[in-house]
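Hey, can you fold this one?
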Amino acid sequence: MKLDGFGLFVNDMGKMIRFYRDVLGFEIKEDENTSNVYLIKDSTLFLLYGRNDFEKMTNRKYEYINNVNGHFEIALYVDTFEEVDIEYHKAVKKGAASILEPTTEPWGQRTCYIADPEGNLIEIGSFNKPFKR
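Sure. Predicted structure:
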């Protein structure tokens, strides 16, 4: 098996679409009233799926964490330390919640954390060189 991507089960699809499109620059073409968003970002599948729709599909109820949660993070990479600071400040100015201001860690990474409107953690980081897989 290969990892294909990841998804977020969201409560307010419109708000989440606006955040990932308008704050982080993801190309999302779906209408804000859709039940799911399926897109590719940097060769990775990214899915937003309405919680109610998923519960109907699976015929189950799930528990969701409210506020900022620490179960996982979405990691975004930029090429330079300066870009970490720039992207952090742009995101916060556009409404992202600040979790950790840009910091250079002892292992050589400059990193910061923001949260989306439903509390999912997003890291913006760099090792001050272009990303290589």
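The chain has two domains: 5-58, 73-126. Let me know if you want another pass with a different chain boundary.
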